[in-house]
Amino acid sequence: MLLTVDVGNTNIVLGLWSGDTLVGDWRMRTDARITADELALTVRGLLGPHADAVTGISALSTVPAVLRELRVMLARYYARIPKIVVEPGVRTGVALLVDNPKEVGADRLVNTLAAHHLHSTACVVVDFGTSTNVDAISARGEFLGGAFAPGIEISVDALALRAAALRKVELVPPRSVIGKNTVECLQSGILYGFAGQVDGLVRRIVRELAPGGTEPVAVLATGGLAPLVIGESETITDHVPELTLLGLRLVYERNTRA
């Protein structure tokens, strides 16, 4: 079985694949102070009875401190199995049509690969994580760039910190867009505000990808916070929570294929 490991700024997501089938996935909090031994112990605990069935690993990390410990863990605990860490030099088949390809995060790269694998058209990937990333992909699978916006949790935390009369609230839809109390006003602004922000960015990107609407464009949502917004979005066409894990699987297959 192939273990895929996606280390993000907020969460570490594990996915276990048997061929093309995602057998299971797990999520843990990212801690920049975690050691290789702690990481190995947690991973093994989450995998449970599947821990000894791992025959390959594909991983990425957007957190440098954890990337260092991830490498140590792989070398110490998984020395005898094939493994790939997505970084410059790893074959992905994705052309990066941006000013500085080295700036493109590994997560955006593998998301591009996975989106192109799922769709033969141009794509927009909206990744709801610590930041909200909206990335553009050509019909040939080229990474064209995108836009960043503050993530939902960052925005909520900042609002609660800077506004004395406001606080963190449960992120669920209010009774109506017009909030009747402080909690509903916050919920409305967060949910519908972020949906409107995403729709606005997506529409502008789609107009550049397909001027005049001549070509279809798939809009995929992924990331841990996607379920909060996708129900209110008017532009998202697909919810693919395992998109990054799929991309990691595809990178592994590309680099280990005989």
From TrEMBL:
Q: Which UniProt keywords apply?
A: ATP-binding, Coenzyme A biosynthesis, Cytoplasm, Kinase, Metal-binding, Nucleotide-binding, Potassium, Transferase
Compartment annotation: Cytoplasm
* Pfam family, any one: Pan_kinase
Q: Which molecular function terms from Gene Ontology are attached?
A: ATP binding; metal ion binding; pantothenate kinase activity
Question: Mind telling me which GO cellular component terms the entry cites?
Answer: cytoplasm
Task: Give the reaction(s) catalysed.
Answer: (R)-pantothenate + ATP = (R)-4'-phosphopantothenate + ADP + H(+)
**What residues bind ATP, as annotated?**
6-13, 130
Record-annotated active site: 107 (proton acceptor)
- Please provide the Gene Ontology terms (biological process) for this protein: coenzyme A biosynthetic process
The residues listed in the UniProt record as binding K(+), with positions renumbered to this chain, are: 127
Q: Where does substrate bind?
A: 105-108, 182
Pathway(s) it belongs to: Cofactor biosynthesis; coenzyme A biosynthesis; CoA from (R)-pantothenate: step 1/5
Cofactor(s) for this protein? NH4(+); K(+)
For this chain's record, the cofactor binding note is: A monovalent cation. Ammonium or potassium.
Taxonomic superkingdom? Bacteria
Family membership: Belongs to the type III pantothenate kinase family.
Q: What does this protein do?
A: Catalyzes the phosphorylation of pantothenate (Pan), the first step in CoA biosynthesis.
Annotated protein name in UniProt: Type III pantothenate kinase
**From which organism does this entry originate?**
Amycolatopsis vancoresmycina DSM 44592
